Amino acid sequence: MFDDKTTCMVVVGAQWGDEGKGKLVDVLAERADLVVRYQGGANAGHTVVIGESQFILRQIPSGILHQRVTCVIGNGVVLEPENLFAELDQLRDRGIDTTGRLFVSNRAHLVLPYHKLLDAASEKSQKLGTTGRGIGPAYEDKYGRRGIRVIDLRRIECASHLLTDRVARANQLLEIMGSADRASLDDHVALLERLAPRLLPLAADTGLLVHRAIREKRRVLLEGAQGALLDVDHGTYPYVTSSNTTAGGAAVGAGIGPTAIDGVLGVVKAYTTRVGNGPLPTEAESPDGDRLRQLGGEFGAVTGRPRRCGWFDATVVRYAARVNGLTGLAVTKLDVLDTFSEIPVGTAYRLDGDSCDEMPSEVEALGRVKPIYETHQGWVSPTGTARRLSDLPKGARAYLDRLEALSGVPVRYVSVGTRRDQIIEV
Ligand code: IMP
Question: Which of 75, 104, 164, 400 has the most CB atoms within 10 Å of its CB?
Fold first, then answer.
């Protein structure tokens, strides 16, 4: 992964999120010095299992679980401070000392309670299936140039003044949207006053911090959240999140130049899942869909919603490889397929009678495609104890070879279980 020439790597989801990036970053962070989250916010739920303990990290990079790693929440993240503090408390209670190891960009925008009210109100008409964490409205404020940033907490009177306008505007919007909810200015001002003393000591010019680390040849991992098909530009718009989840977003959201990045690892499940609304061409009907969900524990880490499950979709991963410039693949949850005697793989689509091996730009067209499947014979034996490729059953190796050929990206890692040690480095 890291060597003399490769010191700054991006890890991204190459499907619809929940690919197991948390576990991958946790494993790779063992060799990293700095781990940076660069987009999204508390909509993410990165699950890491260490021994008998499970950690779900929403905003803090998964690297925090390694005592010698410094973690950064970059300028591209929309930060929900109370949730961040709850995460920090949870880590402390479980014996993880984060003192001096976590920095938050002073340019990051804040997600405030009014953003969540707006998210809930717009869900009533838009029905995107958001996580309800206020992510879309917070990015709207950012790009509308009316956001409140971490640095604004330094001058609390100024921030309170900004809030007067923002809360009034939010309440107007809530009224227009027919919501009975209203945001309270006093509560928002009190919240900022409460947040400032704990958040400001963590605030830094994190772009500079990452830049210096790269210049000193320290090993830097940029940790993406969600997945390529949820990217606001490249995903299944409008059924997407509101940030650039693809590798291009890593430079912007971490505050460095794109030339600093040496490689991009795309994480994919050995099958496909999606949570929220929007097309999922290879969605499996029951009983297979239910079986994948049960075996894979496919329930949202943030919302607990059951994930929609289906077969590996090579068109999706080829597309993700292109828009991310993937240099390697990590295939996760291979073990979930251990008991299937037949495993379909979507190789391309049929759209209105024609074959199509590129992702349609129109969500309505993607909703109409019919996947073209090839069927692999299952290996029907456990893979959880494999630590080298040669430990895997022949059928599992053939399956991985096929995913690699269809995606056009070399497989670098294979995960065969939730535990840290259940990983194969190729
Ligand atoms: P939002 O990011 O909460 O606005 O939600 C927009 C869409 O992205 C919805 O379909 C969510 O279910 C999906 N989404 C957001 N975060 C994640 C994630 O971490 N994993 C999977 N889906 C997500």
Answer: 104
**Ligand 1: centre distance to CA 42 (Å):** 10
Nearest to 314 by CA among 377, 243, 266: 266
Ligand 1 center to 353 CA (angstroms): 32
Neighbours of 62 (CB within 10 A): 27
Among residues 375, 324, 308, which one has the least CA distance to residue 347? 375
Encoded amino acid at 228, one letter: A
Both tokens of 175, joined, read 């009224």
Is the pLDDT at 389 greater than 90? The verdict is: yes
Whole-angstrom Cα distance, residue 289 to residue 153? Answer: 47
Active site residue 18: yes
Question: Is 97:67 a contact under the CB 8 Å cutoff?
Answer: yes
52 band by pLDDT with thresholds 50, 70 and 90: confident
Distance CA 199, CA 336 (A): 40
Q: Where are the alpha helices (DSSP H) in 58-112?
A: 81-93
DSSP 3-state of 47: strand
Residue 228: φ, ψ to 5°: -55, -35
Residue pLDDT, tens place only, 3-41: 888 999 999 999 999 999 999 999 999 999 999 999 999
Q: What is the pTM of this model?
A: 0.96
Contacts 24+ apart (CB under 8 A), 363-371: 363/236, 363/237, 363/238, 363/239, 363/278, 363/279, 366/236, 366/279, 366/281, 367/279, 369/279, 369/281, 370/281, 371/281, 371/282, 371/311, 371/313, 371/346
Identity of the residue numbered 42: A
Give residue-wise pLDDT tens across range 80-135. Answer: 999 999 999 999 999 999 999 999 999 999 999 999 999 999 999 989 999 999 99
The pLDDT-based confidence of 138 (bands split at 50, 70, 90) is: very high
Does 89 participate in catalysis according to the annotation?
A: no
What are the angstrom distances between the C-alpha of 197 and each of 150, 153, 184, 234, 274? 12, 9, 21, 39, 38
Which atom of ligand 1 lies at the shortest distance from residue 44's CA? 19
- The closest alpha carbon to 43, from 263, 243, 285, belongs to 243
Of 15, 77, 131, the one to substitute when testing ligand 1's pocket (max ligand atoms within 8 A of C-beta) is 131
